[in-house]
Amino acid sequence: MCxxxxxxxERKAQxxxxxxxxxxxxxxxxxxxxxxxxxxxxxxxxxxxxxxxLANVLKAGPAKGTVGIGHTRxxxxxxxxxxxxxxxADCTGKIAIVHNGIIENYLDLKASLIKEGHKFxxxxxxxxIAHLIEKYYKGNLEQAVLKTVKLLKGxxxxxxIHANEPDKxxxxxxxxxxxxxxxxxxxxxxxxxPAVLDYTKDVLYPDNHEIITIxxxxxxxxxxxxxxxxxxxxxxxxxxKQAEKAGYEHFMLKEIYExxxxxxxxxxxxxxxxxxLFEELNINQGAFKHFKKIVIVACGTAYHxxxxxxxxxxxxxxIPCWVDTSSEFRYRDPIVDKETxxxxxxxxxxTADSLAxxxxxxxxxxxxxxxxxxxxxxxxxxxxxxxxxxAGPEIAVASTKAYTAQLAILYLLTLYLARLKKTLPPSRIxxxxxxxxxxxxLMEELLNEHKSEYNNIAAxxxxxxxxxxxxxxxxxxxxxxxxxxxPNALEGALKLKEISYISAEGYPAGEMKHGPIALIDxxxxxxxxxxxxxxxxxxxxxxxxIKARGGIVIAIxxxxxxxxxxxxxxxxxxxxxxxxxxxxxxxxxPLQLLAYYVAKEFGYxxxxxxxxxxxxxxx
Length: 619
Ligand code: F6R
Fold this sequence. Notes:
The protein is an alpha/beta fold. It has three domains: 3-236, Glutamine Phosphoribosylpyrophosphate, subunit 1, domain 1, CATH 3.60.20; 243-446, 3-Layer(aba) Sandwich (Rossmann fold); 450-602, 3-Layer(aba) Sandwich (Rossmann fold). Helices cover 36% and strands 22% of the residues. Strands 3-2-4-1-10-9-11-14 form an eight-stranded antiparallel beta sheet, with helices on one face.
């Protein structure tokens, strides 16, 4: 949902801003722009379309200054075009600002500003910020920004420059992410760490309602009363190389292939002498023993991880657990109290609905635990406790490695609680840990040693495309699973639709007869998760029912399964054998690859699918 960058230093600001924006393009990519201070004037260049279009314009006519701001947009107010692209300027052209978020009271503020004589160019909510700063500017940009932000309702991370103060960038935040990068003789503002990692690993994390002024020599953070807030810099542990494609054609493919390593890393970090350790948890064991209910709240892929969590937590810890999407939870007066543990799962840690759900849970007295990937993100900081997934930066918009990392943490949390509450005998816990330890190498094996098998997935994708055209574009996908692999059916469908724009639905297979079976004719391709499990026979019956009605079946089975060969499925994809509990870690990989290859066959932009953005920081 938009990425912003600010730079003050000795380098050509244009280069730093473009590089930073390229690292933030996952946040939005319908237009981009920069504003650079040059000889007490602002040079503002912005274009509709991907960042490369702006980069080409700048190649032909470079901006020369060493101080500036930049923006990559995911449109909320106003269609994506050159005028609505950021940065936005005031009437005089001396002020430029970039913004990530939504200003909810912009219409009222705009009406007053128009009455006062301000001239607006765009249809955005953002432009009012530039005009308000103009209105309040009396020779001090920081003061003018401070007066402005106090009037804003909604969410924002902003960065502003003024031609009269060519040595600084001023930023502020409320409910949208903003970090400060601390360099030597240069400093940065950005929506996310990757934008500054080419230059520094030292960052500050401003809180809500803080204003930041960066110059070449430092960064000063103040609260909205104007008092300086001292912040200790954090050192980023990962490398910028992790945010690069490393020879893969797409980030999504790279991230799929990283999953074995990531799950292995999580186990090495958290499992010691057969015990699960969560160092940063901040909720003591006594409190954990007394939770009567667990509520998991999340969006999208993280919600699917949460649904899987329900299966394991209820079965192995005997604590009732329900799972809700954040946008529903936050508005429906949920019944949670101090005996409830509310777990918020979020890769970015910035998803607006999940953050609001977390606050609602806290307001009601529940203990809250974030499972987040981005260190220092809002959810990680506001929850009572946090467990980081440490999956490294996830750049592709379609989430893959964050999902398996979230699953890995949920498995560990289940084992941790089962030991604490003595709901499983130690011997069973030891067995499960032993099985879990097999998962990373099996994930690796599945991706590497099974190469030919997984090349078949690419071939199936090709066949689907042919079939789709033969059926006059009426073909689509259904995903069926049961029990702990039912959420994977939802996840497989989500992956496919978000990157290939083909209709796809996930269902618990047992629900087929209650409606969806009416859809079955020769059009749908039905992906059936039919790995070894207590519901294996039931899945076989579902396959029969689909085949009897002309549906095309892709079966995901356990290696060595002979029975499935008698069921006349059209395509077979095998995954290695592991205890059923951990099978979602393996099953999801072919689902991710199928989505990837279908999107590739159709020639779509896999890493930046239309209409989406990685981090949904607006409602
Ligand atoms: C799907 C996807 C989204 C996110 C969702 C939550 O591939 O990426 O559905 O999972 O927007 O995002 P986080 O986990 O950052 O809260």
